[in-house]
Amino acid sequence: MYFSKINYLKITKIKIIFFLVFICHHHAFAVESRSKREAITTPRGKKFYKGNRAKQYLSFTGGYSSDKSSTNQTFDSRYLFQSYRFIHEVNFDYKMDQKDVGTGNKKRYNIKTSQAIDFTLANKIRLFSSQFYGVLYHRLLYDELSSYYYDHRTAGGGGYIFFKDKWELDAGISNYVVKDMPTRVDFIASSRINFKLADNLTLNQRSFLFLDKMSVDYELRTSLIYRLNQKMSFEIRHNFEKRRYRDFKNKPAINDVSRAITVGLVFDLGGME
User: Is the full-model pTM beyond 0.90?
Assistant: First the structure.
């Protein structure tokens, strides 16, 4: 099931990248997943539209699957609004799992094992007609059948747009709460750069920093794109991530470093209005 509403949406480019060179180096397992931290900084990367242009997007999806001993139901919804002054994003995910448990006379059927809710609200608001903007974020993970029961984070901050939309820099704090664990406060900074170095050469860079009393997490993604012609570009990407954290106060800090290099060609297959 899928329904959507799109206003002023333009698809301008389809990218195909081939030939990858991938180099990774890992030392340890990170305390918090990268996806949770990217979920905070990714909405900040969306651009304000210029002029009176605006876009709205609304979708609903659902799914059901089963086998002889279990069933799975999902429901997801998305809403996005972008304009000159506002970017609002709302995501809602619901998942329920049921399965047969036990054996013999003790076997029970269609027992609910998970009923999880993932709700996210993200806002990016331009302050009047200036280059200053504010960012707000809240995410709630809730599953009454899970051992952690609930997990939620609230973040807020402000930023500035430099050099006519070529560089965005913001910073703020977040409050992270998980049941039966101490509340954690993080300092979060993120940056996005898009500079045209020459007529056919562009530099893109994305980075974020998470800092608290037990850990430091820094990630930098850099792309150098050289346009060969109107339909093809050559691209080099370099991803770098470093995490330093302590599992316990009386133990040495753990360092985790990851690097990746990607080389390829990007084809512009045209667009549609």
Answer: no
